[in-house]
Specification:
The chain has 300 residues and is α/β, with parallel strands linked by helices. 44% of the residues lie in helices and 14% in strands. It is built from twelve helices and nine strands. The strands form two sheets. It has a seven-stranded mixed β-sheet with strand order 3-9-8-4-7-5-6, sandwiched between helices. The protein has a two-stranded antiparallel ribbon with strand order 1-2. Strand 1 and strand 2 form a beta hairpin. The longest helix has 26 residues.
Length: 300
């Protein structure tokens, strides 16, 4: 290989394919937004595409119905709203398996503490935002405040006690986030955070933000790393869903008390190593998934 890809250190390659560079990401942002089954040179079978469209139709119809029927639930406390949210997410996971043949397998559930903790997850797909809610007792996502302003959907987020990050506050945003996180930890809740801040395609170089390290230090709560391979089956900015088994693995918790930078590096190392293992495992079981990885490295 020649060019920039050849200059990447060995640690920045995975699954036998190099990570994409930021320059590539920016150059291809617009084309990446097109539906996977339309732009891919290795188009999936017509049945896979049909099943994907059928799932999305069923998902949005079900979501609309549940959102309307559940409005009285908003009069209750956050536990009632969260219970109703689990009905929605479990229904979505059930539809995904029955229509697309895409099932979710959880590993390492014994690593989730009984009490308060941070749960820092790799973020490759919309799938984990749904699936993670199904296995926690009292969850809170850290999300953009703008989502709270969405009619009906935002009402459920507020009713479920989710933590809103107001980015317009700039210098005050992180202290405000820490305050909300401390309150959640004091209440014994599990806080979900995506350390990279947004969904990343499989194989892209990791960019862990410092926010998770600040919360780890400020809350003094244990942090459970989460690795996954969901991006192989439901890539970001794609309506295509591939059949197979998505694995979400909870890793050994990181005890509180580490320096911020040491914690952040340890968190990244654990998540990335386990994610590479899960991706390799899925590709070994279904070699056609190499097509997803090939797309990620096409211009490197």
């Amino acid at each position: 290989m020649t060019g920039r890809g050849a200059m990447l250190p060995r640690a920045f390659t995975a699954y036998g394919l190099p990570y994409r560079t930021r320059r590539y990401e920016a150059r291809h942002e617009s084309s990446a937004a097109a539906p996977d089954f339309i732009t891919s040179a290795n188009a999936p079978s017509p049945m896979t595409s049909i099943r994907s469209l059928a799932f999305h139709a069923a998902f949005y119809v079900t979501t609309t119905l549940l959102a309307i029927l559940g409005l009285p639930v908003l009069a209750g406390d956050r536990h009632r709203v969260q219970a109703y949210a689990r009905l929605w997410t479990k229904t979505a996971i059930w539809l995904l398996e029955k229509i697309c043949g895409t099932r979710v397998e959880f590993r390492g559930l014994e690593h989730i503490p009984e009490g308060a903790c941070l749960i820092a997850a790799k973020h490759q797909s919309a799938l984990e935002t749904l699936a993670l809610t199904t296995i926690t007792r009292d969850f809170s996502y850290i999300l953009k405040k703008e989502l709270m302003a969405i009619p009906v959907f935002g009402w459920y987020l507020a009713g479920a006690g989710q933590i809103a990050l107001d980015r317009s506050k700039r210098g005050q945003a992180l202290p405000d986030l820490s305050r909300q996180a401390k309150e959640a930890v004091a209440a014994g809740r599990q806080i979900f955070i995506f350390p990279e801040g947004t969904r990343k395609p499989v194989g892209v170089a990791p960019e862990y933000k410092s926010g998770v390290a600040h919360l780890y230090a400020d809350t003094a709560a244990p942090c459970v790393p989460v690795a996954l391979n969901s991006g192989l089956f439901w890539p970001r900015q794609s309506v295509l869903l591939r059949p197979g088994t998505v694995t979400i693995e909870f890793l050994e918790p990181i005890a509180p008390g580490l320096p911020k930078q040491e914690f952040l590096q340890l968190l990244q190392d654990r998540i990335e190593e386990a994610t590479q293992r899960l991706v390799a495992e899925a590709v070994s079981a279904d070699p056609t998934l190499k097509q997803v990885l090939a797309r990620a490295s096409a211009a490197t």
